Amino acid sequence: MIRPFAPGDLAGVDALWRICFPDDPPRNAAPVSVPEKLRVEPGSVLVAEDVSAIVGSIMHGYDGHRGWLWGVAVVPSHRGRGLGAALVRAAEAALAARGCPKINLQIREGNAAVTAFYERLGYVIEPRINMGKLL
User: Fold this and answer.
1) What is the tens place of the pLDDT at every residue in 95-117?
2) What is the DSSP secondary-structure string of 86-109?
3) Statement: 2-120 belongs to CATH 3.30.70.100
4) Is there a contact between 17 and 37 (Cβ–Cβ < 8 Å)?
5) Would I find Transmembrane helix among this entry's keywords (predicted)?
6) Domain boundaries, the chain
């Protein structure tokens, strides 16, 4: 079942992200990212639940110009069942309902499996240079 994030879900999302994103820096950890994301954009985090365990997540956002997806994760035991696609479609629907005309996302270079996943969902590689700055 895909549903909006609830306050009691943080430990489950944190455990999921530790499995799915083991190399992420501490600033991207769920206890840091999720509360701040919800403070800025309530309702922008969705989870997938199986019985009483969090098995998937996605965060989405819209800045008035384009939408973004991140934190897309499915526990390995539940992959290949369409859950990731369902999470992406749910986020796409939420963004479309807000008038979002285009969605962007970032994938680590060389992650062929994730690139193929998004290509199956209609996303295309756009030649860009990604830049960032820590504040």
Assistant:
1) 999 999 999 999 988 999 999 99
2) HHHHHHHHHHHHTT---EEE---T
3) no
4) no
5) no
6) 2-120
